TrEMBL record:
<feature type="domain" description="Dihydroorotate dehydrogenase catalytic">
    <location>
        <begin position="3"/>
        <end position="283"/>
    </location>
</feature>
<feature type="binding site">
    <location>
        <begin position="67"/>
        <end position="71"/>
    </location>
    <ligand>
        <name>substrate</name>
    </ligand>
</feature>
<feature type="binding site">
    <location>
        <position position="129"/>
    </location>
    <ligand>
        <name>substrate</name>
    </ligand>
</feature>
<feature type="binding site">
    <location>
        <begin position="42"/>
        <end position="43"/>
    </location>
    <ligand>
        <name>FMN</name>
    </ligand>
</feature>
<protein>
    <recommendedName>
        <fullName>Dihydroorotate dehydrogenase</fullName>
        <ecNumber>1.3.-.-</ecNumber>
    </recommendedName>
</protein>
<feature type="binding site">
    <location>
        <begin position="263"/>
        <end position="264"/>
    </location>
    <ligand>
        <name>FMN</name>
    </ligand>
</feature>
<dbReference type="InterPro" id="IPR012135">
    <property type="entry name" value="Dihydroorotate_DH_1_2"/>
</dbReference>
<keyword id="KW-0285">Flavoprotein</keyword>
<dbReference type="InterPro" id="IPR024920">
    <property type="entry name" value="Dihydroorotate_DH_1"/>
</dbReference>
<dbReference type="InterPro" id="IPR001295">
    <property type="entry name" value="Dihydroorotate_DH_CS"/>
</dbReference>
<dbReference type="InterPro" id="IPR050074">
    <property type="entry name" value="DHO_dehydrogenase"/>
</dbReference>
<feature type="binding site">
    <location>
        <position position="42"/>
    </location>
    <ligand>
        <name>substrate</name>
    </ligand>
</feature>
<feature type="active site" description="Nucleophile">
    <location>
        <position position="132"/>
    </location>
</feature>
<keyword id="KW-0288">FMN</keyword>
<dbReference type="GO" id="GO:0006207">
    <property type="term" value="P:'de novo' pyrimidine nucleobase biosynthetic process"/>
</dbReference>
<keyword id="KW-0963">Cytoplasm</keyword>
<feature type="binding site">
    <location>
        <position position="17"/>
    </location>
    <ligand>
        <name>FMN</name>
    </ligand>
</feature>
Amino acid sequence: MLKVAGIEFKDPFIISSGIVPLVDKFMNKICEKYLPSAITMKTLTLNALEPHKPPTVIKLRDGCYMNAIGLGNPGIDSLEGFQVKADCNLILSIGGNSVGEIKKVVERFEELRTTNKALREKVKIIELNLSSPNRKGYGESTSKFTLDITKEVSSVTSLPVFVKLGPWDNTVELAGKALEGGAKGITLINTLKGLALDREEFKPILSYGTGGISGKCIHQLAVRVIHDVYKEYNTEIIGMGGVFTWEDALELIAVGARLVGLGTAIIDRGYEVILEIREGFNTYLKEKGLKIEKVIGIGVRK
């Protein structure tokens, strides 16, 4: 058991945004069978957005993928009758194309929460997606407004706010803006924008052109970015980026992550990877006689 933003989590292992479909019965099944400490929901915007046309996901090499779904989602009102009753927390991912729109999404969620017991009880954190590279005007396009967005959202919700950022040159600076605006923590890292070409016509393979690279090929980048933000602010971090093994998870925890998101590993190997990573990590702690609190940030404090 550990606490993040004052909230209890069974262990550090959660599912990253965009992995579990926004279907409450399916979420219940995943919670019951694989016991993630939390599921981060698919990013929701004020109104529905159509995903980009296929192909939207390609495998680059072993454990490395690139996607451009484009934040396709049914909109925040799709949560109106949402019911997740299983024993795992939910993290609500929010996006938009302006300060005002993102604030409106959160305000609408607060309205839905007043009449939906499941949303009141299960959603523990709001995560602001200011970093997706796959839709113009959204995600990373809004990162320049990090301070204003975080301030506005924090003013209309009592839930702790985390801001999800990408692996950029100014990530440490933006993390500071988020914390200044009232964020309780930072989520690191989102995907890295890349490009893959068809070898016959030499055109982009993905319909959108560019896409977000995820998986093993960005893991060490995630380690470095999380390390730098934790070293600068000693803040709470939800870490992710190419975690395929318990050793990968340990590395992110050692540089400051309190929770570890699993995403591409699930796409590549299935939900069973959650159980495998948990078992390996717990065995390591037991063999070393360690508590997780002693491991968080140990690679930065040395």
